[in-house]
Amino acid sequence: MIMRIHTAWFAAMMAAPLGAQTGTVVLEASRIVVAPRTVVTGDAAKIAMRGGQIVGVGTEISRDALDGAKRIRFDGATIVPGLVVAHDYLDLGSDLGESIDAFTPSLVAADAFDPFDAALRRFADGGVTSVGLAPASENTFGGLGSVVQWHEDGGEVLLDTTYLKVALVQEALDQNRYPTSRMGAADLVRRSFEEASAPLANRDRDQRTLTDALAGSRNVAIHARTEGEIVEAIDLCRELGIRPILLGGQHANEHVDALRDLGASVVLGTLDFGDDLDRLRLPAILERAGVPFSFAGSHPIALRRSAALAVRHGASRDAAMAALTRVPAEQLGLADKIGGLRRGQNADLAVFSGDPIDLTSKRLAVFITGERVALEKE
User: Fold this and answer.
1) C-beta pairs of 170-174 under 8 Å, 24+ apart in sequence
2) CA 6, 11, 14, 20 torsion: positive or negative?
3) In terms of CB atoms within 10 Å, which end of the chain has fewer, N or C?
């Protein structure tokens, strides 16, 4: 996998004292959420950035660095990691799906990426700094997701390939080609992975993609919406030894123990005020079972609303914050770079007037790889 991330300054940062470096920007606030359970407050609520990376938080920052740095203060504000979305199509629609062939595991979503997609800019305006661009669900094997983010001169691919997407939903079935039924889709998944596990001297790209998934070096995201689809996904993963990311999962309430036993995580659709109680309570049920979850949604406010509703119906604030940051970063395979504000991670962060899970909090600023985004009107 090729990672297009800003790492040029990392060696220099590690080799020399922080105060010896130039070009440091220090942000000050009332509260910094380094990670869901790690919060810095008071006079120590400072974060230093240089070369697109976090170089220190709180007491890690030397006095010399503070004296020589450009300082920006956000009185009364909360700084959080840039929000992360693990699964979205942006505005690309049919460009993310190949309708003729149901087996396209090596297609790469980044090949269809439009760097000037308005949806990506809309995400950035709301504090979402990284988006998992996913293949569509038109094929049983849709292809490989990518990670993208906004910059002032247009979008950029942060990671070329992330999870392999598999779809068991109705959209993946087509009466004009195999598979035409969920039973056929399950058979295609089973046979394809079994063939990829057999010893072969030469493997093509499709087979190598599946082999990586079986070996655990690539995540597998399975789109399953109804209870029947979820049961099928669980059975396949047990049989094949796969730890899945379950996409959708609206009806997973009765299957959280099975998901936990698989080591699964879940990407839930956004929650709304009119949803039934089973759906609103699902995040809390997943948390109690030890199943990590995140949210997918086409707008940052929908993501924050989902987190707020999850808390309202029993989930902890830590789990809701993790669902917006750390968990989707893990699902994308980039938790060492995004989803947190620790030293060495990318300087992707958002500034809110208060807790972002509180929907009265306003977005004040967004920084992506240390550069402040020129935001549209709130």
Assistant:
1) 171/136, 171/137, 171/138, 172/102, 172/137, 172/138, 172/139, 172/140, 172/142, 172/223, 174/99, 174/102, 174/138
2) negative
3) C
Least confident of 28-32, 131-135, 174-178, 308-312: 174-178
Judgement on whether residues 94 and 36 belong to the same structural domain of the protein: no
Q: For residue 271, give the CATH number of its domain.
A: 3.20.20.140
Check residue 53 and give left, alpha or beta (phi > 0: left; psi -120 to 50: alpha): beta
How much is the pTM?
A: 0.92
Give the per-residue pLDDT at 378: 54
Three-state DSSP at 349 gives strand
Mean pLDDT of 90-117: 93
What letters, b where the CB count within 10 A reaches 16 and e where it falls short, cover 20-38?
Answer: ebeebbbbbbbbbbbbbee
Domain span holding position 76: 10-81+341-372
How far, in Å, CA of 123 to CA of 155, rounded?
Answer: 11
